[in-house]
Design goal:
heterodimer; A: 326 residues; three-stranded antiparallel sheet; 9 helices; globular; B: 188 residues; mainly beta; SH3 type barrels; OB fold (Dihydrolipoamide Acetyltransferase, E2P); five-stranded antiparallel sheet; 1 helix; 16 strands; elongated
């Protein structure tokens, strides 16, 4: 008899999941952060070259339209901030095509929150406090690393100054690829491979690791600043626990022109790679033009957090129905 | 053959890598917070049996390998090649080289079904059944009454394999052997 109708998670796990989600809401209620719900469907998608947005056709007031399933609630939430919402959080269903695995599911729950007036450090403190409140096995410490320092420690190279040739060779070696496989790849691809295959698995072991000062090219929707060594870096942090990337936070970009330029760069890179271009979200840009308060925001993978809190091996162990048996 | 992209890599899928047919053992999606996604893939090289890892950029693809497993009975060897016959009633025969036969040479017995892996219709490996019954052709005389003591001795079987057997086993007896560990299981 077929058994694929059964849930991916045990019912007892779903009870624990509900309890953890209630704790998340209580955490933000205590801090006077407003819970919001924004649409899953949007008129614009994510231009991020490494994300594949799903889309659907809808019959709207303007006739048949293509609408995009959001890869995160970021754009809608920023429009709320620009409209004067104050601090907000959301447990948002988000969608990223093709992402299936032990730590990925095409449809997942993102916890995203924004703190007008916060510095990146203040937001890091709040994020680690939330993780500490939810993951009983985590007892500290919180350790900060610079992206550059991690490459020195684990790979004895510098992400900014080591030659591209050397990075390509090293990345191919670490990926057990035949020499020359990465001969045409960009610096970013080599750094991504080394970061995700070599460094990340070693982070968050008996500690909560905070990584900062990413190369400016990896800023996405974060501001850029010059670090102590004079390198341009992203005002961005990532959080790791037990080798798993949990959260990604930004000191938010509020400049509409700069944001438009980054979206256009993404689409130019998409053309170069033969990927479809994505409609730029003009309403987000209009909101930034109107004026979004300075502040910081972070996105945290709630399913992963629950997975870690409950000591489960795979993401699907905490999902009622993972995509492969949805 | 069709091409398969990284998100179609599943355990058991047969693909070509560096000119050799391989079977996918494991496939894990790895993605930094922002940036390029990769797949860390474990593959078994079907020519050598070795398992190795390889990283791919997500979205890369590999050509499928025309590989299939068929059940065939062992017939005979002419000293150069080993001959097997399909058990599906077609009487179709395949000749297997020594290299493809590998360690299975010491577990060969006529009329026993083996799993033959074919790549482009050529045999590349032979897997024996998990258990096989073989006659002892040479061993020291059995010790009477010694059925419980732990001792063992070497015995040469009709297929040429040498296994450790209990002291009470005699020449001419037929034994059940686990071909995966090469260990004696029981008298047949």
């Amino acid at each position: 008899m077929a058994t694929d109708w059964r849930p991916s998670a045990e019912i007892a796990t779903l009870r624990e999941r509900a309890r953890l989600l209630a704790s998340v809401r209580a955490f933000f209620a205590r801090r006077d952060v407003l819970e919001v719900e924004t649409p899953v469907l949007g008129q614009g998608g994510s231009t991020d070259v490494h994300l594949v947005s799903l889309s659907t056709q809808a019959r709207t007031d303007k006739g048949q339209r293509r609408l995009w399933l959001q890869t995160s609630p970021e754009f809608h939430m920023k429009r709320l901030l620009a409209a004067g919402s104050g601090p907000i959080f959301q447990l948002a269903r988000s969608f990223r095509d093709g992402e299936i695995g032990a730590r990925h599911n095409i449809e997942f729950t993102m916890l995203e929150w924004y703190r007008p007036g916060f510095s990146l450090d203040e937001l890091i403190n709040e994020t680690t406090a939330l993780v500490a409140a939810l993951v009983p096995s985590f007892t500290g410490p919180v350790v900060h690393y610079r992206y550059r320092e991690l490459f020195h420690t684990y790979l004895a190279v510098d992400p900014f100054t080591t030659s591209l040739e050397k990075l390509r060779t090293l990345a191919a070696e670490q990926g057990q690829m035949p020499a020359g496989t990465l001969a045409k790849e960009r610096r970013e691809t080599c750094l991504d491979l080394l970061m995700s295959m070599v460094i990340e698995p070693q982070l968050g072991r008996d500690e909560l690791s905070v990584v900062m000062d990413y190369p400016a090219s990896q800023a996405a929707l974060a501001r850029r600043h010059q670090d102590a060594d004079g390198e341009w870096v992203a005002s961005r942090f990532e959080l790791y626990l037990e080798g798993i990337e949990l959260a990604n936070g930004y000191h938010e970009l509020t400049d509409a022109d700069e944001q438009r330029a980054r979206f256009s760069e993404d689409n130019a890179e998409r053309r170069r790679l033969g990927l479809p271009e994505v409609d730029i979200d003009e309403r987000l840009l209009a909101a930034l033009e109107h004026g979004m308060p300075e502040g910081a925001g972070v996105a945290l993978g709630v399913d992963r957090l629950i997975q870690l809190a409950l000591g489960k091996a795979r993401l699907e162990d905490v999902l009622a129905f993972a995509t492969p048996n949805c | 053959m069709a091409n398969y992209s990284t998100n179609e890599f599943k355990g058991g899928l047969k693909v070509m890598l560096d000119g050799d047919p391989c079977s996918i053992v494991e496939n894990e999606l790895v993605k930094p917070g922002k940036g390029q996604a990769f797949n860390r893939v474990k593959l078994r090289n079907l020519m050598t049996g070795r398992v190795g890892e390889r990283t791919f950029k997500s979205g890369d693809s590999l050509e499928g390998a025309d590989v299939m497993d068929l059940e065939m009975e062992y017939l005979y060897t002419d000293g150069d090649m080993w001959h097997f016959m399909k058990t599906d009633g077609s009487f179709e025969q395949y000749a297997v080289e020594k290299k493809a036969l590998g360690d299975t040479e010491k577990w060969l017995k006529e009329q026993v079904p083996y799993t033959i892996t074919l790549w482009n219709d050529k045999a590349i490996s032979v897997t024996p059944p998990n258990f096989i019954e073989l006659e002892v052709v040479e061993t020291d005389p059995g010790l009477k009454g010694d059925t419980a003591q732990g001792g063992s001795k070497p015995a040469t079987l009709s297929s040429g394999a040498v296994v450790r057997v209990p002291l009470f086993i005699n020449q001419g007896e037929v034994l059940k052997i686990d071909t995966r560990s090469g260990e004696y299981v029981s008298r047949a």
